[in-house]
Design brief:
alpha+beta, Rossmann fold, 4 domains, six-stranded mixed beta sheet, about 40% helix, elongated, Chaperone protein HtpG, Hsp90_N, ATP-binding, ATP-dependent protein folding chaperone, HATPase_C_sf
Length: about 625
C-alpha cells in the first residue's frame, strides 16, 4: 500500500501552456493549412512509420530494445460508441521530456535531428523519414475536440500521457505503461462530417489513397489494409507485364491494358522512381477543358498529390503514372508542392527519358510505335509547334509522316538519309485525303522527277514543319512551291504570260479579291487549273484556322494557276466576255474543290457549268 502511494506521488503530472507559435499553428491547422480534413490520417500514419523507422535504426547499435522476431505494425481502431479513433504503433516512443519538446513545441518532432544522425551513420539505406516539420500531429485537431497521446520509450521505465483540447494548454503526466510505442486517441467532434472517419470503408479508402505503400502493415480489425512493397520499388527483373497491367488498370481505372509502360529508377545526385503508362485509347475527357494533366507524386512511399502538372509537359499530357522521390522539399501541409529545384530537375530528367524511350521504341518495335503515333502523334506535333518551337529540337526525331515511298510511315531522318545527293529540300504535300494527295498534279510532278514526298494529312502537320523550318540543314518545301523548269522554259512561260497579259488581267478582274495573282504553270500535267498560296498562311492553314472561333477571317493569299498546255486554255483565249467570266469562276471553284474547300456558292457554280457545257 505504502509503495503504491509512494509510486503515485512520484509520478510527474503537469499542466502546460503551448508555445505562442504552437497556439497559432493550431489555429492555422484547423482553418487554413490543410485543404482536406482527411489528410490527418495520412499524417498520423506517417508519424507512426517514422517512429518505427527510428526504433529500427536505434536497434542497429542498441540491440536490446528490439527483438529481431518482433513484427512491427500500425493499428487503426475505430470505436463508434465512444466516438474515438486510435492510431497505435510500436515504434521508438517518447520520454516525458521528449513529449514536452516534440508535442508542446512546434516543429520539434525530432525527424530533422534524426535524419541528420542517419546521414552521419550512413547505415541501413532502407530507413525512411517521412515527417519534415513535426506539425502533422496537430492536423488531428481538424476532426477532434480532444486528443490523448500515450507513449513509452525503451529508455524510460514509465509511460507518458498527454491530453489536450487544442485550446492553448495541455496536460502531461507519467503513467504505468509496459508496451513500447505510441497510441493516439482522437475524440471526434460531434458532427456527421467527422463521424464518417469511424466508418471502416472510409478508413480503408483513405489508407489506400494516401498510405497504401507505407512499408509497415497497417491493421484494421486484424486485417492488413495497405499493400505490400510498391511496384516502383520492386526490382524490374521481378516484374512481369501482367504486374504492370494490373497496377495500371486498378490505379487509373482503365479496363484495357496500357499500350506501353516505362519504369525508371534514377540514382545519383537526382534520385527518384517513376512508372509511366501510355493508354491504348485517349482518356474520354482528354480534349476537354476539364482535363488536367499530371503525374501522381509520392515522397517516401506516401501519396502527396494526384495531378502534379509540373512533372510532365503539356505535349505528354496523355501519359499516366507516378513519381516517388525521397528528397523533395514540401510546404508545411505536404499538400502543395513548393516550386523547388528538385522538382524542376526531376521534370527535365523525366522528359528526356520519355523521349529517349520513344526513340528506342521507334527503332526496336516500329509497329508498336506506329500504334502509339496514330493515337497520340498529334500531341507531339503540337509540342513542336507550341511556344514558338521551344521544344522542336527535342521532339523532331519522334515525328512520323506517310510518304510517297510505299505509302509507309517515315521519320524525317529516314527521309533525309534517302535523299538524292543534290537534293536540298524536303518536299511535302498537304491535304486531308491520302488518295487525293497522290493524284494531285503538283505531287505527281515532284514524284515523276524522282523525288519523295511527305503526305501531311492532319492540321497540325504543316504547323509543325513550318515551326521547325529545317531538319538536318534541309529546308521544308511544299510541292505547290516547287518548279523544275529550266531557264529556257522559264523564259518561254514569261513570254507566253506577256502575250496573254490582257487575258490574265481580265480573269483577275473577274475574281477580284478571291485571288491575289493569276499565273500560267505548264507543270500541272493533265489538270487545267490549280490553287496555291503566297505568304505565311497556306491553304491548309486557312482551313484549319477557320474551324477555330475568332479566326474565321484568316485567309490565305490565293494564286490561281492555269495550265497553258490544257485544251481549256484555248477555250479561255477564244471565249466571249460573258463566257470568260463564267469560265474564270468555274476554274477558280475547281481549284477550291481540288484543295478540299467548300464551294462558296454551289448553285451558282452548277448553273455556270451547265451554261458552258450546253454550248
Amino acid at each position: 500500500m505504502w509503495s503504491a502511494i509512494f509510486k503515485e506521488d512520484t509520478m510527474k503530472k503537469e499542466t502546460k501552456v503551448f508555445q505562442a507559435e504552437t497556439k497559432e499553428l493550431l489555429n492555422l491547422m484547423v482553418h487554413s493549412i490543410y485543404t482536406h480534413k482527411e489528410i490527418f490520417l495520412r499524417e498520423l500514419i506517417s508519424n507512426a512509420s517514422d517512429a518505427t523507422d527510428k526504433l529500427k535504426f536505434k536497434a542497429l547499435t542498441d540491440t536490446h530494445i528490439l527483438d529481431s522476431s518482433e513484427e512491427l505494425c500500425i493499428t487503426i481502431t475505430p470505436n463508434e460508441e465512444l466516438r474515438t479513433l486510435t492510431i497505435t504503433d510500436h515504434g521508438i516512443g517518447m520520454t516525458f521530456e521528449e513529449v514536452v519538446e516534440n508535442i508542446g513545441t512546434i516543429a520539434k518532432s525530432g525527424s530533422k535531428a534524426f535524419l541528420s544522425s542517419l546521414e552521419e551513420a550512413k547505415k541501413n539505406n532502407d530507413l525512411n523519414i517521412i515527417g519534415q516539420f513535426g506539425v502533422g500531429f496537430y492536423s488531428a485537431f481538424m476532426v477532434a475536440d480532444k486528443i490523448i497521446l500515450e507513449t513509452k520509450s525503451p529508455y524510460s521505465d514509465k509511460g507518458v500521457k498527454w491530453t489536450s483540447t487544442g485550446e492553448g494548454s495541455y496536460e502531461i503526466e507519467e503513467i504505468d505503461k509496459t508496451e513500447r510505442g505510441t497510441s493516439i486517441t482522437l475524440y471526434l467532434k460531434d458532427n456527421d462530417e467527422d463521424k464518417e472517419f469511424l466508418n471502416e470503408y472510409k478508413i480503408k479508402g483513405l489508407i489506400k489513397k494516401y498510405s497504401d505503400y507505407v512499408k509497415y502493415p497497417i491493421m484494421l480489425k486484424d486485417e492488413r489494409i495497405n499493400s505490400t512493397k510498391p511496384i516502383w520499388k520492386t526490382p524490374k527483373d521481378e516484374l512481369k507485364d501482367e504486374d504492370y497491367n494490373e497496377f495500371y488498370k486498378s490505379t487509373y481505372h482503365d479496363w484495357q491494358d496500357p499500350l506501353l509502360h516505362f519504369n525508371f529508377n534514377v540514382q545519383g545526385n537526382l534520385e527518384y522512381n517513376a512508372i509511366l503508362f501510355i493508354p491504348q485509347v485517349p482518356p474520354y475527357d482528354l480534349y476537354t477543358r476539364e482535363y488536367k494533366r499530371g503525374l501522381q507524386l509520392y515522397t517516401k512511399n506516401v501519396f502527396i498529390m494526384d495531378k502534379c502538372e509540373e512533372l510532365i509537359p503539356q505535349y505528354f499530357n496523355f501519359i499516366k503514372g507516378l513519381v516517388d522521390t525521397d528528397d523533395l522539399s514540401l510546404n508545411i501541409s505536404r499538400e502543395i508542392l513548393q516550386k523547388t529545384q528538385q522538382l524542376k530537375a526531376i521534370s527535365k530528367n523525366l522528359e528526356k527519358k520519355i523521349i529517349s524511350e520513344f526513340e528506342k521504341l521507334m527503332t526496336n518495335d516500329r509497329d508498336k510505335y506506329i500504334k502509339f503515333w496514330e493515337v497520340f502523334g498529334r500531341h507531339i506535333k503540337f509540342g513542336v509547334h507550341e511556344n514558338f518551337g521551344l521544344n522542336k529540337d527535342k521532339l523532331e526525331n519522334l515525328l512520323l509522316f506517310k510518304s510517297s515511298k510505299n505509302l509507309d510511315y517515315t521519320s524525317l531522318k529516314e527521309y533525309v538519309d534517302r535523299m538524292k545527293n543534290d537534293q536540298k529540300e524536303i518536299y511535302y504535300a498537304v491535304g486531308e485525303n491520302l488518295d487525293i494527295l497522290q493524284k494531285m498534279p503538283k505531287v505527281l510532278n515532284v514524284i515523276n522527277k524522282g523525288f519523295e514526298v511527305l503526305y501531311l494529312t492532319e492540321g497540325a502537320d504543316e504547323f509543325a514543319l513550318k515551326t521547325m523550318n529545317t531538319f538536318k540543314e534541309k529546308t521544308f518545301k511544299s510541292v505547290t512551291e516547287v518548279t523544275f523548269e529550266t531557264e529556257e522554259e522559264k523564259e518561254e512561260i514569261k513570254k507566253l504570260s506577256e502575250i496573254n497579259k490582257s487575258l490574265l488581267d481580265k480573269i483577275k478582274e473577274t475574281l477580284k479579291e478571291k485571288v491575289v495573282e493569276i499565273k500560267l504553270n505548264p507543270e500541272l500535267g493533265d489538270s487545267s487549273v490549280s490553287l496555291s498560296s503566297k505568304g505565311e498562311v497556306s491553304l491548309e492553314m486557312e482551313k484549319l484556322l477557320s474551324q477555330i472561333p475568332g479566326n474565321e477571317g484568316v485567309k490565305a493569299e490565293k494564286v490561281l494557276e492555269i495550265n497553258p498546255n490544257h485544251p481549256l486554255f484555248n477555250k479561255l483565249q477564244n471565249a466571249s466576255e460573258a463566257e470568260l467570266k463564267d469560265l474564270s469562276d468555274i476554274l477558280y471553284n475547281q481549284g477550291l474543290l481540288i484543295e478540299g474547300f467548300a464551294l462558296e456558292n454551289p448553285l451558282d457554280f452548277v448553273t455556270k457549268l451547265n451554261n458552258i457545257l450546253s454550248k
